[in-house]
Every structure is written in C-alpha cells, then in structure tokens.
Amino acid sequence: MTAALTLTDLVGRHGQLQAIKGLSLTIAANEVLAVIGANGAGKTTLMRMIAGLHPVAEGGILLHGSPVTKMPAHERVKAGIALSPEGRRLFGDMTVAENLMIAAENGRKGDWTLATVCDAFPQLTPLLGRLAGGLSGGQRQAVAIGRALIANPSVILLDEVSLGLSPAAVEGLYSSLAGLKGKVTLIVVEQDLTRAMGFASRLICIAEGVLELDGTPATLTRQQITDAYFGIHKAEEPSHA
Amino acid sequence: MTPAQTLPMAASDRWLIGLACVGVLLLATLPWLGSALIVDKLIYLFILVMFAVMWNLLAGYAGLVSVGQQAFIGLGGYALIRLVDAGFPPFPMILAAAVLTGVVAWALSWFVLRMKAGEFAIATWVIAETIRSIVMFDPIVQGETGTSLLALNAYDPDLRRMVLYLMALTMMVVMVWGTWVLLQRRIGAESQAIRDDEDAAASVGISTFQVKQRIYIIASVGCALAGALWLASAITFQPRTSFGVQWSVFMLFMVLVGGIGTFIGPILGALLFFALQEIFGDFGAWYLAGIGIVAILFALYLPRGLVGLWLDRGRDEPLSMRKRLGL
Question: 0.90 exceeded by the pTM?
C-alpha cells in the first residue's frame, strides 16, 4: 500500500530564513500523526506547504504516490488534502452554513455532507444560521474542522487544534475527532503533549525546521520529547526559537 | 437532517425589485417628456451608478481595493476616440471600446492580482498614471491638450442626447442586474470568501486567482463602458480628466457612504453624491470640503453607510447576497 503522504527533502523559506530545512517524512494511509514543536519551529509552514499555501523551495511532496509539489492549493483540495488553518480562519461575514457549503461545493464528493458533519460535530447544528465572525474560539475551531472535513479529504491537516480554547472545548473537539480515526489520514499540530500522546498513533517533533524525533507514544518518553522540543541534545548553545 | 435549501426571496425584496422595475420604465419614457438639461444630468447620474456598482463589486465583494479604476475609465474613452478616428460609427464603438479595454484588463490582471491589499492599491494607481502618460504620447491626443469626439457633431443634438440617455439607462440596468445575477451564483460566494480570507478560500478549494481575475475584468469592462459613455456625453477627451484619480475618489465616496459590500448601498451612495453635487456644486472649492466633511461624518457615525440605517435597527439587509438557507 502506498503512503498517504511522502515528503522528500522539503525546504521552505520565508525570504532569507529557512523555516523548513530539508525535511523528509512518510505518512501511512489512515495514520494519526501528531506534530509537536516550539513556536517558530516550522510546524505551520510545513502544514501550509503540504496544503499548497506556501511555496516549496526544494524537495517534493507525493500524495498517494503522485506528485503535488507544483499543484496550487485549490487543486490539492480536489486531490484530497484539506487544511484547517491556524487561527481558525473562517469567512467572518458568512454564516456557518455558508462557510460549510462553499467548502462542500469546491471539495470532493463523498460521505461527508452538511448533515454528516453536523452528526459528527453536534455543536455545529445550532450555529448554522449564525455569522462565523461572531462565534467563540471553540465554536470557530469546530466550524474550521467541519469545513475541512466536508471537502471529503483523504489527508486532513489540523493546525493548532487546541490553541486558545477552554479545556471543555478541547475535550469536545477531540472526542469528535476520535470518530475520524481509521477513516482519513490525520495530521494534527498540537501543543499539549499529554493530549498529543493520548490521541495520536505516531508523534514527530520539529525544532528549527528539522525533524528531531519520530516515534510512537508507546516508545517515546516525555523526557525524549521535551529534549527534542528544546533541541537540548544538540551540544551547542540552547535553541533560541 | 436534509441538505440545505435556499428559501424564497423576502417579500420586502420583491417589493424593492418591483419598484425598481417601475422606476426604470418611467425613466425610459423621460427623454420624451423632460428637458434637455434633466436628460443630461440623468445621463451623468446613470454613469455614477455604474461606477459605484462596479467599484463595489471589486472592493466590496471581492476585496480588491483598487484606486486605479480610472485607468479603465480613461482607456474606454481613449479607445472610443481612436476607433471613431479610424472611421467607425461612434455609438456602437462605445461597446467595442469597452471590449478592447477588457483585453487590456485581462493582460494586466496576470501580475496586478498577484499583489495583496496595499501593494495592489498602489499598483493600480501607478498603472493608471503610466497608461495616462503613454496615451499622452499619442499624436491625436497632443499631450495635455486632448482632443474631441467631433464625429458626434454630425448628429442632431436632440437625437444624440436621446441615444446616449437610452444607452446609459440600458447599460446601468444591465450592470446592476448583471451584478445581482453574478453575486447570486457560486462566484459571488467565492469572491466574498476570498475577501474574508484569501488563504482560507484557497484551502477550501476555491481557485482564488481565477475568481479574482473574472471580477477584475468584469469591473474594468464596466468602468470602460461608463467611461466611454461619459466621454460621448462630454465630447472632450483630456488625459488628466479622463484618467484622473478623482474618479477613484468619487467611487470610494459613493460606495463607503452607501454601504460597502451591500448590493443596494452603492446605488444609494451614487444618488446622495449626485444630490450633493447638484446642491453644492456651485460653491467651488467649498463643495469639495463639504464632500470631505460628509465622508468624515459617515466614517465616524455611520461606518456601514446608508444601509447601516437598516442594519442598526436589527433589520435584514435589503437585497442581501447572503444565501437564505433553509436549515
């Protein structure tokens, strides 16, 4: 079985700065991958590169074995990659239903429809007629995830799922997300280590654009992850990321 | 849960549309009844409405805040001058001039639309000034001097006024109605998504460049059409006037005062602007100060424009582009 995503020597830049420095990674179909890393480590840039929102300077991306490196973002959605961006960037002047419908119209056809998304995220149903700009953080995150899901992706990227949300909202979101396991390839950027270890089947840690650690929650220790997070094993001076 | 269905239009909206149809029919009979002066003034009002509706489509719905639409207003006029000079009949050439300008807009779109927000605004203005400079090199334009659409003098003034009036009325109706149809379709929702968040729009599968390009070309052709009509009524083509940044200021004023990103707002804004020009136009420079004060008052106390008067009372926006989904 071919991998869902294959990243080969991926380099991403912000002007002169290299945000991703030759990162290679293979993600199996229906894997649940948690991405950990400090602020500025390059997690969001990596997500945006996979989604096609940030240019790939060097290296390549394969989706189910076919190259998507040069494909613009909107075509990658049709190929099966959907991103729920950092900051839950909704269309603020549109209703929740409109946010979801526009993604449904532009995405792929499949099991995920307005109805099934509302079944999976019941908190959305009472919000459908509300303007997205006026929602709380947790509600916005649910809409953003629903909006990614309704495009029927085979790979779904969730950037900063729990950032700025109340523990109750995070709990609600993760119990809904658990229902997606085994149906899609999930890549989740998560700052909460306990949450990430409990949810994911595989965990990677990025520091300063480099893959520092790759393993499963069962085999990795908290100490290993914390060291990788801060780049401590490097003999030189500590990271200033 | 069943899939979302769009609900029928609100009763008040149907009333408004009915009223607008009656208004258009009355206006269509007016040149046979009204004086030449009123007909001339109404031609100008229709042109203002076209400018406002086109700029609102561009900035209010697609988020493309341009201060360089005068490039296409001027080019529409210039293309008309050139086509008539080449011996073609003036009235049909108003349409041809707009089509030619659309080709220029298409060519420009490839690089101007790669810029964002502030860069885009500045680039559009620079392009307008550049095109004006180039046009001034044309020997028949003679630099600052300009030229005239002399071929129109061959027509009887009353007939000319009548034809221009009916053309302006028709084109205004086509633009207003066409914008309505366009915004009701998928491209309408997609352009609003791009306005709200372009990256997010791309990541839900919207081809952002293509949507922006279509809106940009449509708005440019609309401005060229109105610009060519304006030239045909003003006769004299002067690069500094036709390509003047005052057009962008007018468009901004009408759209912001009426209510940006609403369907009816720019039309109300154009009516208010026209009324202000009529009432205070004789006061010279003070009139400009007055326009500025009105703009400041709106920005401070009615930032959502005239349409805000409805919204602040908790009523729905009239003729809203929001899809009424039955859920």
Answer: no
pLDDT tens-digit series, residues A54-109: 999 999 999 999 999 999 999 999 999 999 988 888 999 889 999 999 999 999 99
Domain that holds residue A40: 5-230
At A109-154, the pLDDT tens digits run: 998 999 999 988 888 999 998 999 899 888 999 999 999 999 999 9
CATH code of A181's domain: 3.40.50.300
Kindly list the residues of chain A whose beta carbon comes within 8 Å of any beta carbon in chain B.
48, 51-53, 72-75, 77-78, 82-83, 85, 89-95, 97-98, 101-103, 105-107, 113-115, 118-119, 125, 128-129, 147-148, 151
- A239, part of any domain: no
A83/B207 touch (CB, cutoff 8 Å), yes or no:
no
Q: Where are the domains of chain B?
A: 35-245
**Domain presence at residue A236:** no
B87 and chain A: CB distance < 8 Å anywhere? no
Count of structural domains within chain A: 1
Q: What 3 state SS string does chain B have? A: CCCCEECCCCHHHHHHHHHHHHHHHHHHHHHHCCCHHHHHHHHHHHHHHHHHHHHHHHHHHCCCCCCCCHHHHHHHHHHHHHHHHCCCCHHHHHHHHHHHHHHHHHHHHHHHCCCCHHHHHHHHHHHHHHHHHHHHCCCCCCCCCCEECHHHHHCCHHHHHHHHHHHHHHHHHHHHHHHHHHHHCHHHHHHHHHHHCHHHHHHCCCCHHHHHHHHHHHHHHHHHHHHHHHHHHHCEECHHHHCCCHHHHHHHHHHHHHCCCCCCHHHHHHHHHHHHHHHHHHHCHHHHHHHHHHHHHHHHHCCCCCCHHHHCCCCCCCCCCCCCEEC
ipTM value of the model?
Answer: 0.83
